[in-house]
Amino acid sequence: MTDRKPTTCMRCAVGCGYRQRDTDGGPKFVDVRGDNDHPTNRGQTCNRGVRETVDPTGERLTEPLIRRGGTLQPTDWDTAIGTVAVRIIEALRKGNDNVAVLGSGQQTNEAAYALGKLARGGFGTRHYDANTTLCMASAVQAYMQAFGSDAPPPTYEDVPEAQTHVIWGANPKIAHPVLYRWIAESAAADGELIVVDPVESETAADADRHVRPEPGTDLALARAVLAQVVDSGAVNRRFVERHTEGFEAMVGSLPAIEVAAETAGVSVDRVAELAAAFDAQTLVYWGMGVNQSVQGTGTARSLIDCCLATGNLGPGSGPFSLTGQANSMGNRVCASKSSWPGYRSFDDPAHRKAIANAWDVPLSRLPDDSGPGFVRIIDALARDNVDVCWTVATNPVAGMPDAGHVRNALGETFLVTQDAFRSDTVELADVVLPAATWGESEGTVMNMERRVSRVTAAREPPASVRQDVDIIGAVSHRVVPALFGSERLDPESLFDEVRALTRGTTADLSGITYGRLADELAVRWPSSTATDQGGYRYFDGEADEAEGGGETDDSWSFHTDSGRARFSDASHEGVPEPIDETYPLTLTTGRRPDAFELPTTEVVGFSVDSRSGPIRGRRIASVHVQHPAVQAHAQGCASVASSLVATEIP
Ligand code: SF4
Question: 640 vs 36, 579, 612, 629, CA distance in Å?
Fold first, then answer.
């Protein structure tokens, strides 16, 4: 047995520190335990994170594959990379956008950065995104619009300080177990836990109060709560006047409380209780129940509005989106997707020029907009106008809605799939590039509260498997050899490139080095020196102290043009597909307690709408997507049973 190396759990974005070691051929993949020195978790772990790290499920890809005669057959790396490179070079002759690249929140910062540099700076394609968009785009847009910057203002240090915890459209007891432990402890000690969710989730079962809106009406409920805050005089006028803008316009756009409450299927009394929760020091957490909606950004902004209106933005309070994938934030900061590294804007020609200079590529090669997102890229593939698509650590067939459409789209292109395990997408690939997984890879990740920490390799991958950065380097070397200057990419050097590009930006990583991470294990950005790290994002407590205590005008500084946080004015516009006699059920999604990763994580729950059944808000059925089956509540289904038909999930 070798010494234990510090690493980070990659099963969710809580970002717990582990100590791991190789098992030298033992029954476990690696052996891990919580790292008592890690500032994120101080040794705490969850069973699922440990179990899935030491015993990952799935059929391992152990050698490159190439499609011949309709089937995937083993090949060697030289043939696989050579084939991929030739197809990419041919495709790029027709135009930069003729190659699509789809990344993932499961990559290290280094791999995400290298892939983005190759996609944008090497290929020059606009058709580049990562699956993080599918879960976090709404929250990111909401933060950007409200604060001018994408990052949750709170950190884990705020959790024990909060008096009220409002969890909206999320099930952290299952999805973020260690963070939920802290939330539950805080609520149990001297606080309150309120859950807003149509589903009777495991988290909701623990709540002091469970509010159940109709599926798809979260924005109506959030706006009703906001209206109640305004009507009841609970607005923090001092904070609003000094540090925000758009308050009057927001108030002018609010619905009548009774109407919005009825739309949400929640009583006016319940709305008043929810509004009153913001009288205390309140943290509002939200997840996919808010984000994955056609009005997700509007709902997230309304939750932020509730915090702004009540001044719930200081320590122990604030709007905290719960990130799912372990390195979703790292992708946003490093990967050149919706912004250049360090949140440098695509709209700013100076930023584009700075990136072109740093990468030593022609300015004209870099796209001048971020291009379509993940869903629209799949649509472009389906229209048969993208010759090559390269997926890295993502499984769009299982992760996106309408699997049939996704399969057809991927069938229209030359598909290159880079992954560690077999998946639905791998089965469609023309070339498969087998990648190392956690425990075999070197790099860094960022958790949901902006902490950067190391991912390390405790064991060698199988002989014919390579780390992500090695595969990206090999493709780059054949297609654009000058981009990295070498086929062999070094994770620390890649991280140093990111550090340099983020220097002076709102996501400054320049003060974080591998050496510092070896000593401190995790460092929160922004960090511009070898000793500093980001505290409360938009609040400067030192300014208070300089003024002799008490909040001053200088205490808050947002990254908007005015330096003020912005209110919003979105209104609920109805669900896109309301129930009718033919389709009498409304579907919503949840998460299985026994698994994190696709294809075993997604569960579909049915709720009967108030207009078609007597048990409004009760979960009546669920579908496990890996083993199609329905669990139905007899009472709820009785009213619609005659119209239920069996259908095969494609
Ligand atoms: S809470 Fe998340 S990061 Fe922590 S051990 Fe569990 S799965 Fe891993």
Answer: 53, 12, 8, 18
Q: C-alpha angle 633/639/642, rounded to 5°? A: 100
Per the CB < 8 A criterion, the answer to whether 608 and 640 are in contact is yes
What structural domains does the chain harbor? 5-54 (2.20.25), 65-131+326-436+469-506 (3.40.50.740), 137-324+559-566 (3.40.228.10)
Q: 14: CA distance to ligand 1 center in Å?
A: 6
Q: Which atom of ligand 1 is nearest to the CA of 326?
A: 3
Query: Ligand 1 pocket, 178 CB below 6 A?
Result: yes
Identify which of 19, 51, 178 to mutate to test ligand 1's pocket (most ligand atoms within 8 A of the CB): 178
**pTM for the full predicted model:** 0.90
DSSP three-state, residue 123: helix
46 lines ligand 1 (CB under 6 A): yes
Sheet strands (E) in 474-584? 522-524, 565-566
Answer positive or negative: Cα dihedral of 297, 300, 304, 309: positive
Determine the distance separating the centroid of ligand 1 and the alpha carbon of 26, expressed in angstroms. 23
Q: Are 193 and 313 in contact (CB under 8 A)?
A: no
d(CA 313, CA 304): 9
Ligand 1 binding pocket includes 9 (Cβ within 6 Å)? yes
Instruction: Determine if the peptide bond prior to 599 is cis (ω within 30°).
Output: yes
User: Tell me: the pLDDT tens digits for 432-486?
Assistant: 999 999 999 999 999 999 999 999 999 999 999 999 999 999 999 999 999 999 9
Residue nearest to atom 4 of ligand 1 (CA): 16
Closest Cα to atom 8 of ligand 1: 49
Atom of ligand 1 nearest to the CA of 18: 5
Atom of ligand 1 at shortest range from CA of 41: 4
